[in-house]
Task: structure prediction
Amino acid sequence: MKNITPKKPGWENWPSPGDLQELCNKADGLFHYAATALHWIEGQIRQDGTAARKQVFKNLTQMGVGLLDDLYRLILTSVENIDVGAPDTDRRTNRLLGFQHVIGTILVLDEPLTICQITTLLADISEDDFDVTNFLEQFRSVLVPGTTTSFEEATPQMHKSFHDYIMGESAPTEFRIHTGHAHFVTARSCLEVIIRAGSQSRVAVEYSVQHWYKHLRKAVEGGVTCEDERMWNLFGEMVEEAVIGIWATTDLLDLFMDVAAAGWGLLKQHANEDKMQGMSNMLMKATVLVS
Result:
């Protein structure tokens, strides 16, 4: 606790022995509970300053003993308090969609990326709608266990209990992550990176080239119908000569198999055949390149 207490006037006797005992009681011997709670408290202090001194322990005392689900819900509602009406419904919608996009992507990544690399991968999220960097900083108590000298270079390692919580029935529906949708938005982010490869980091481009079609297949397998106009437009841009040179560096046979499987799945879902032309064109390009 000493490490997260600001060395400023007014913080000398914080927290009180009673507050510390209450935190210990709530943790009930669970190290992960205590560690996550401390990181959340640290984030609240960083965000709200002195206003957090009483509020953080007040919120913790309202939770059950040793209940991680209660702690996770507290952390989620600290990001967006769904328990009260939203004065700006558009803002709330953008924040919840942003949450699902960012956390969903982190949960379904095929290989670990750092916070900085994830931010680059998700550059398709408009900063005017959702500040990815700021959100990741807010959510670091769940994303990065323990302390790290460089948050940007840290690799998210969500505890299994949070993974199960946020994808299960216990999580509020507004925050709950659905695997198919998570793969879909990740595939779309990857396509955006490939289209704009010249302005993106090497790691983000490499990940996108190697994994976009895997995420697409898993999205369709997860029940996503791809009723997203931007996605279809991206498929059209993927067959432009300058862009082909980017994605043609991957395993084209794997790409063909996964895109074909996704296309077949979409046809069985009665997807618009005209819109699927871009996907068909990609398959034809891949066939030519393989041969």
In short: Residues 89-108 form the longest helix (20 residues). The CA atoms of residues 21 and 64 lie 14 Å apart. The chain has 15 helices and no strands.
